[in-house]
């Protein structure tokens, strides 16, 4: 049994991670904001050691670490979208919501007695931004927005601080994660919901490519990194390396939902295609990890879940990675 502490456990990826840790027999403590919905964890709430607090409350964080004494910390709580503002307020908001809480959590973990053995943070493919693909961990990043820039700043702060930390801190840059329970504000669940309802799906950038990875593979990768964080190093891509076109994804979902093809309406634009694809070579070579769920199987599982849970509202909170 391992003592685990998870932030963002009420969100999409965090809730899947919490369940996986419970299934392993771990003692799972979670940190959630006071106003976070418990819907994703309602059936397992009694098995979790719940701590409602803001990460920017140092006293509450210290008491949480003293009570839970985690051996592994998984930081999966963050805000993923910041609309660009003329006064650059999105930049300030991204620092307040993503960078400052990360530093506070690192500080509390470093001061804990005993400190954890590993600190694993869920990063994002958006940190790479507008550079050549496939993205590799040694690339010079060029994020496109405040979301990517705030995550990238956190990655650099963690790397800078490593010599001052009593544990290995790893950023796992996640590809575009999908699967059961994801918010309909993201690409795949939105398309599935519309196709099952017989509503049209508009594809504005059909030639864009997206590196997609099922949430179960992400969770398995995060747990593997936590087992050997030194082998992973400070930064590791957690991805499939497979990037189908958005139009191809839509065609696959039409078949899986038994929808009529004319529901997919493709708009031709003059925009150059954007490719978001990572190389999984480092995690494969260092930890022997590779994704186990091919895209067709993962999409089929996700469609099946949506069919079976159509009465359950799709949540909008703390989803880590836009898909």
From TrEMBL:
It comes from the Bacteria. InterPro entries: Epimerase_deHydtase (IPR001509), NAD(P)-bd_dom_sf (IPR036291). Residues 4-237 form the NAD-dependent epimerase/dehydratase domain. Pfam families: Epimerase (PF01370). Pathway: Bacterial outer membrane biogenesis; LPS O-antigen biosynthesis. Belongs to the NAD(P)-dependent epimerase/dehydratase family. This is Nucleoside-diphosphate-sugar epimerase. It comes from Aliiruegeria lutimaris. The lineage of its organism: Bacteria, Pseudomonadati, Pseudomonadota, Alphaproteobacteria, Rhodobacterales.
